Amino acid sequence: MTNxxxxxxxxxxxxxxxxxxxxxxxxxxxxxxxxxxxxxGDMVKRIGGDHVxxxxxxxxxxxxxxxxxxxxxxxxxxxxxxxxxNGLEFEGWLDRLIKASNFEGMRVVATNGIKPLPFEESxxxxxxxxxxxxxxxxxxxxxxxxxxxGHNHGTFDPHAWQSLRAAVIYVNNxxxxxxQNDPANASAFYLNRAAYVSExxxxxxxxxxxxxxxxxxxxxxxxxxDALQYFGDAYGLSFMAPQGLSTESEASAKxxxxxxxxxxxxxxxxxxVENIADSRLIEQIANETGAKIGGKLYSDALSGPDxxxxxxxxxxxxxxxxxxxxxxx
Amino acid sequence: MIWDTILxxxxxxxxxxxxxxxxxxISLGATPVGTFLILRRMSLTGDAMAHAILPGxxxxxxxxxxxxxxxxxxxxxxxxxxxxxxxxVTRMTSLREDASLAAFYLISLAIGVLIVSMRGSNVDLMHVxxxxxxxxxxxxxxLLCSISSLSLVILALFFRPLVLECADPQFLRxxxxxxxxxxxxxxLLVVLNLVGGFHAIGTLMAVGVMILPATAARFWAxxxxxxxxxxxxxxxxxxxxxxxxxxxxxxxxxxxxxxxNGLIYGMSLSFGPVGGLVAQTTAKQHIQI
Lengths: 329, 289
Hints:
Oligomer: heterodimer
Largest sheet of chain A: 4 strands, parallel
Number of helices of chain B: 14
Radius of gyration of chain A: 21 Å
Helix content of chain A: 40-55%
CATH architecture of chain B: Orthogonal Bundle
Number of domains of chain B: 1
Order of helices and strands of chain A: HHEHEHEHEHHHHEHEHEHEH
Number of helices of chain A: 13
Largest interface: A-B, 34 and 36 residues
CATH superfamily of chain B: ABC transporter involved in vitamin B12 uptake, BtuC
Strand content of chain B: under 5%
CATH topology of chain B: ABC transporter involved in vitamin B12 uptake, BtuC
Distance between the termini of chain B: 48 Å
Strand content of chain A: 5-15%
Strand order of the largest sheet of chain A: 2-1-3-4
């Protein structure tokens, strides 16, 4: 990787030196940018194009919740001019990594300016179960989230990229920071942004249309861990999971029993496994309830190039179609 | 009341029945082995073997994903290799068994971590290695039950030499050639049960089911047979209570089961009739008066 980059750098430098002299060479050298995980990395590539060299710390199918940085990552961070993170306490390991690597560039929080969903602790189904008043529950959520959910998962659900509408804000934040860092190529970044955003908006409409075909009592989705609340919030689906927001937490028998009860009572037809989470529990739940495994959802990481979710837009499209197909039957 | 708190969870949910069955299998297989481990002053050997198994299982996982057989075989091979090598070194050189075991399990662990890291960060491996007792499928249950049965049969066959090894290894070595075979068979049992346990509650937690009930039973029974029966009973009761706690109070199941075991150990330590703290103080008072 580094060898290739050095080779590329020197090749580009040589070429441009031949073409237009050493001063121009500085301008066309791709900006080293570090993205914390594959989703943000893909966005940066789309916007930055050839003007950026993106290093993604947590790669395809990797789990950012439990990631351990390596020395190579520290070097990438120390060489980067721009570092783009998701924020909302998704990358708990990032502060230490930045300190350790003497990073001096621009640190950008991609979720800056989105309206974050409160961390729900996957308690919703338990509340439902105990026949709490729905309104009371929402009150709870709005007023007490600081105290109730203020433990190490953070106050807010970090998985905001699952909403295409929030993704536009990600894209805006990334674009403006790249432009600020490299004003010479700002127009290129904004051009790429415009094309990307129109693709995102088109996909948003497409998925909304698909979800609208689902009957209102077929809109509960069971996954391994609570990563798709934003997706559900955007399209009116509700998501439930035996594991909480982080893949690190271990499921308790109570939560598993609660899910099984929900599946039986609401006659839920399909459950979904995730690319980054242990699928055995979901398989067991499917086994016990007779629900079928509706497919694999990509939640916190893109897939490798050969699988169906190799880019951010492909990932959202794959998740949308998988859910709608499985629940529509 | 009893129906709601104790029976209903198992009656209504298949995964609870499976979890209980899995735990009972582990209790039956691993706890007797654990009893011999503590009698032979080898309690920490269980811990070392658990670490030695991790890399083998990890390699199995990396080669063929989350499938039962490669992970089991990988764990078995890694565990047995460490056991054999350390046994060999102990018998051939002046290095004591605990030292050579420590050396080999650390090497094995390091190799495992190296291989996993080279492959890059994938689905969190620790999650895979810390099995979840709530997600036991048919194949895993069959494996757990087979391992326990096999372990019990082997234990029955080797019961006498094992007891002798505990009581007087020199004597066994002088009257019979079975000493080495007994020792390695015993290590095989340790590895076998840990590999089984790791599918259910993870290797490190499996050591808990192996050792904790046996240490607790030490305060209740004087004979080896009595200890084994008490230990198995403690392990089973702890599994039941741990699963119910997990069900009613939404605690993670693996740690809940081990902590109930720990609680029973604490109580046995204090109130057990055979050498428990309370029993000791009352005995001393008798002597003084």
